Amino acid sequence: MPSTGSLLRSLVCRACCGEVDPEVLRGVCPTCGQTLFAEYDLDRLDARSWWRDVRGREPTLWKYREILPVRDAGAIVTLGEPEGPLLRLRAGAEVEGIELWAKDDGGLPTGSFKARGMTVAVSRARELGAQRLFAPSAGNAGLALAAYGARAGLPVAVYLPEAADPRTVEAVERYGASVVRSGATIREAGEEGRRREAGRGFEMSTLREPYRVEGKKTMGLEIAERLGPDRLPDAIVYPTGGGTGLVGLWKGFDELRRLGLVDRLPRLIAVQSEGCAPVVRALRDGAPKVTPWENVLTSAPGLAVPAPFSSERVLEAVRATGGTGVAVPDDALATARRSLAREQGLSVSPEAAAPWAALPQLLRTGALREGERVVLYLTGRGAG
Ligand SMILES: Cc1ncc(COP(=O)(O)O)c(C=O)c1O
Ligand SMILES: [Zn+2]
Question: Would you give the end-to-end CA distance of the chain in angstroms?
Fold first, then answer.
């Protein structure tokens, strides 16, 4: 089979500094149970000519294959993941002086950025011999897993909270995946999944396997490619649930920095709903990890993650870039969603409206400053 040229070298745990063989199908660190991250032999890449090369390749995220983990090109499970367009926003008077962009991932397969993580993680799981995949989900991750699982010919089980939208259940089942509804939030759904799947399914939850974050790092690579490595945004505003998106953005930019292609990282700004803001609270309190949020109450299912796994890594990603966190009133999401559609022609999911909802507060508090270039990450599309 043709090789992808992947420079994957090992899996490392940032919590205990352990290093393990990446050719074994594995979820978390065997020593301490925390997230494993892919490391590449970046010094074997002639960075500048690689970067030029990448720009001429077929426009899917697999063009970055040397710094993705799949080795065998025949193992790639793809639905043709196109680049999310980067659009200059027409900003109103309240954001005058800011060069405002939106990156819209609504056009990816199954309608959200979750496709990025799943195309990579499902491909790698299949390459390493996984026979059955499962994950808890608020909806979008489950949809993406079901679609890529179907494409791979692997059975999939998705564990959704009891209150999951019946349309989501129906859409996941349409791909042939089985759906179990359990518990109030993704946290309980995940516990149920781990109980039921023990010894048979491979878990694909956020940060509990090493490779979804590899797919998500392509969000950062695409931004660098589109704006140019020397015109990176000053800040990226990101709707945060489990936090892999933030970790992925950070990892993507950090690898470009280690390759000598960029010399600074955009500040990552986590946006959550006031109805579930454990990451924002931990950032504000200077805490090393998140304490679980009680009484989750938000209209955005993807933001309803009371206790993100490996939250230390999520907080680290924000802090390492000099970023911050902000919570918006939950009803501001619906208002922002409407105004994004009416004023910009962008119909997004409730989660994806959060960065737009956060703008006034970010400007008022000085988290965003005049003259800056800012990307709002629109993670998924609205129905219809
Ligand atoms: C549309 C959308 N945006 C954002 C998120 C949160 O993403 P992350 O888990 O990477 O923080 C989700 C998660 O379900 C989502 O579906
Ligand atoms: Zn470890």
Answer: 41
CATH-assigned architecture of domain 86-112+212-378: 3-Layer(aba) Sandwich (3.40)
Q: Name which residue sits closest to atom 12 of ligand 1, judged by CA.
A: 302
- 255-281 per-residue burial string, b: 16 or more CB within 10 A, e: under 16: bbeebebbeebbbbbbbbbebbbbbbe
Domain 114-203 in CATH 3.40.50.1100? The answer is yes
Ligand 1 centroid to Cα of residue 236, in Å, is 15
pLDDT of residue 322: 98
The pair of structure tokens assigned to 47 is: 């960075």
pLDDT of residue 90: 80
Low pLDDT (below 50) residues in the chain: 384
Please tell me the distance between residue 233's alpha carbon and the centre of ligand 1 in angstroms: 21
pLDDT at position 384 is 43
Query: What's the pLDDT score for residue 357?
Result: 97
310 Cα: distance to centroid of ligand 2 (angstroms) = 11
Quote the pLDDT of residue 95: 74
Q: Report the atom number in ligand 1 closest to the C-alpha of 247.
A: 10
Look up residue 371 and give its amino acid: G
Whole-model pTM: value is 0.97
